[in-house]
Amino acid sequence: MPTSCTNQSLYEGLDWCQGEPVLPGIRGAVYYLPKKDIVTWPTLPKATGDPGQHMANLATYNGNFTLAADVVWRKIDVVDKQSNISSEAQGDQPCITSLNKGTFLYPGTKEQATGFARQANSDDLVFIIFEKDGKARVLGNEMFQTTTKVSQQSGSQPTDSAGTTIEVEVTDVCPAPFYPGNIETADGTISGADGSPVSSGSASGSGSGSN
Predict the structure, then answer these.
(1) 57: how many CB neighbours lie within 10 A of its CB?
(2) How do residues 190-209 score in pLDDT, each as one tens digit?
(3) Which of 33, 87, 151, 160 is packed most tightly, with the most Cβ within 10 A?
(4) Taking 90 as the threshold, does the pLDDT of residue 3 lie above it?
C-alpha cells in the first residue's frame, strides 16, 4: 500500500524593502553554559508543517530553557568586529542538516580565559549569541554534541593582537535557531527577542530550577 503523506508546505515569499538596513555582525557578549545544566529545552516546530505555523516559526524556538537549580547563563565579552556565526548545509538528501559555526574573540589571555579553554576543549557547551538587531540565536542542541576549540595568541609586535579565540561547531536541523525566550544571567534576566531586561514577573516559570 502506498504511503499517504500529509506534509504541509510552509513556503512564503521573502520580501525586502529597498532602503531597509541589514546590520551584519554580532553584539559584544556571548552567553554559554554546559549542556548538562539544561533541564528542558524549548522546541522547534516540525519542518513538515505544524498547524497554524508560518515559515519564520520553523527557525524559532518556542518556550524557554529550564535550567538546573542555581544555574545561570555565563557571559563572555567578545570583540564584535572579529566575531561571527555562520551556517552551511551538509550531507545528502534526505539527510541534509546544518553545520552551525561560531568564532568569538575574547581580548587577552589571562588566567580565567586559559581556565575556560582547559574545560571547554573537552565539554559539550551551548551558546547564545545576539545579532546586531538584538535577536538571540543558539549554537547547540539536544541531539548533537557541540565541539568547542579554544586557542590563544600572545602576539609578538606592538601592533599585534593578543587574545583567546573560541571556535564552536555543531550539527543541527536548522541554521542557528532564533530564541526569543528568557535568558537568566548573573546580572538579571534578559529577553532573547531584543536583549532588553525582563521583569521578575515576566520571567517566572522559566528560569533556574523551575519546571
Answers:
(1) 16
(2) 999 999 999 876 554 444 44
(3) 33
(4) no
To the nearest whole percent, how much of the chain has pLDDT over 90? 78
User: Range of 166's domain?
Assistant: 27-203
Asked if residue 6 is part of any domain, the answer here is no
Report the alpha-carbon distance of residue 140 to residue 163 in Å, rounded.
Answer: 24
In the numeric block, which cell numbers belong to residue 26?
A: 554580532
Distance separating alpha carbons of residues 74 and 123, to the nearest angstrom: 15
Cell of 23: 546590520
Expressed in angstroms, the distance from the first to the final Cα of the chain is 44
Confidence (pTM) = 0.90
- Any idea what DSSP says for residue 62? B
Q: Across residues 151-176, what is the average pLDDT? A: 90
Answer whether 167's CB lies under 8 Å from 48's CB: no
Give domain status of residue 3, yes or no.
no
Domains: count for the chain: 1
